[in-house]
Design brief:
globular, alpha+beta, 2 strands, about 10% strand, two-stranded antiparallel sheet, single chain, 3 helices
């Protein structure tokens, strides 16, 4: 199904309404240029639209040490939650 990876090629945002209080935008296709998508004007537009439309916008990224996704999106967010050890507090 369409998702974030497809926003460069499509003008509409592929929002999936899960419930009355939760909507998600799936990742989309796995091929292509993920770094290009994350740094694109289309991604900045998507995040700005989400900021205006929703009370809370959460971005889930790959671990910091594995891929640069979180670093590429850092300029577009107000804060971050860093998971150091899954399943522990």
């Amino acid at each position: 199904s369409p998702g974030v990876a497809d926003i460069v090629d499509r003008p509409e945002i592929p929002v999936v309404r899960v419930s009355e209080r939760l909507s998600v935008v799936p990742a989309g296709r796995l091929d292509g240029d993920p770094m290009g998508v994350l740094t694109s004007n289309a991604m900045a537009t998507l995040l700005e639209h989400a900021r205006q439309e929703y009370d809370w916008v959460l971005l889930d990224t790959a671990p910091l040490a594995v891929l640069p996704d979180a670093n590429l999106l850092a300029d577009h967010v107000d804060g971050a939650v860093l998971v150091v050890s899954a399943g522990a507090t």
